[in-house]
């Protein structure tokens, strides 16, 4: 053994020879190609038949974001190029593939955290064919292999972004795609709404919540997806603030409260999320600029800005969490106007209602707060 040869790691077989040029342990024969970095870290384990990749293959890499040895990463990428292996999603740490007489059949890409599967793909005659499944990837490339490049935005991703996407390919062409949340429920992408209250008048707004129209519209606009089953910790019960409200506002408050607590309220994460804000105790949480018993939380948008009910007037106020102040543009006269506007703003954010037509309706109804939510 030359002085340039490092000590053989315990799990590197005696048949492997060290190459100082590549800083790798190499074991090549008629049935396998195996590589280890100098410290024994595995780089490639591939089966051969007739000089071609055949059977199981494992390829390992180290991504620079993990602060591992740069030389090991370069060595892994060189092997990937040398054997024409597919390039998977960002942060891929391992490929487990199956080949048949030099043609790839399946590949599973493991990512970060280590062991987590990022992508599974299959091929027939060199083309993607069958199930193509990826996890929690919403941007960038999913796969690059030969002339095939598949990106996360090749299909329209629903919002909130899915936990998993599954496509079906036939001879290289994508035929279908389905999305799933973290509980495994399919995220059905609803079609644009044909009827969304285009003919509402100002007179129709009064009683919108108490009459049950708000609940009806919620069910019609957002029929799928998860429902709100838990509220913010320490949510104030209705009984602690309902008596403060002017009598004319109490029926709407009772109906709104009952609906939020019923388990039928959909999770609306872009404009109208009640799960993290309904019943929010502004005093207990020391809400800057609004730590007063008169205010109680109603909902929040995706950035954390909230809507608070002023229990002394029945008005709904827009609260900016970064500035710790109220935004007069985002206010509503009452819960009816607020509920009517916010579910439609949510639907517009999901591209299910034309934003311009909705803005025209808000102007006609005098809902300046709704216009602010469309910005």
Automatic annotation (TrEMBL):
This is SMI1/KNR4 family protein. It comes from Nannocystis punicea. The lineage of its organism: Bacteria, Pseudomonadati, Myxococcota, Polyangia, Nannocystales.
